Amino acid sequence: NAGVTQTPKFRVLKTGQSMTLLCAQDMNHEYMYWYRQDPGMGLRLIHYSVGEGTTAKGEVPDGYNVSRLKKQNFLLGLESAAPSQTSVYFCASSYRGLAGNNEQFFGPGTRLTVL
Amino acid sequence: ILNVEQSPQSLHVQEGDSTNFTCSFPSSNFYALHWYRWETAKSPEALFVMTLNGDEKKKGRISATLNTKEGYSYLYIKGSQPEDSATYLCATNAGGTSYGKLTFGQGTILTVHP
Question: Which residues in chain B have their CB less than 8 angstroms from residue A42's CB?
Fold first, then answer.
């Protein structure tokens, strides 16, 4: 069981470039989440998905898009990267549960720098 | 957006000390409170998920309590060890149709000195 994996681990982009971060989980979880982590800010939810083919906005969705074409994968896209998107990105997944009482399992993170 | 606050922001203790820290959250429309342990260069890992007022959970030397009526949870570490050094995150959700969306506090950074 690999759990939650993220690709790539590190990336440096120039302003205006685009990229896609891939999250994969092998636990058959229904729910998947993308967070960003900035110093002093904790984890903030970007987008989430409650199942294949469905996505929704979180707390800080601007500048990001997501897709969940397969249950096990959740992609986070940056169409035109900005320095404000320099951050560490974490993907997480969980079973469907009663109103969020299931623990979330996190990936190892992707460190993104936008110059 | 929920307001989840943790205190203190950071804490330095000596090996063998017991310590505790606080998570405050809105008490209305409560469904669950999560505690995660986050070691440097690793991913957050769940310690506890609590749902009922008065819940107490324990894992080894770490325990947590929950008061949903007043909106707080305490995390206790008994006899701290250097390997307990980590950031401890709490999170709660809006309940209802939030599909497990969690709002995290900013974390308490614990450093245990040998």
Answer: 89, 104-107
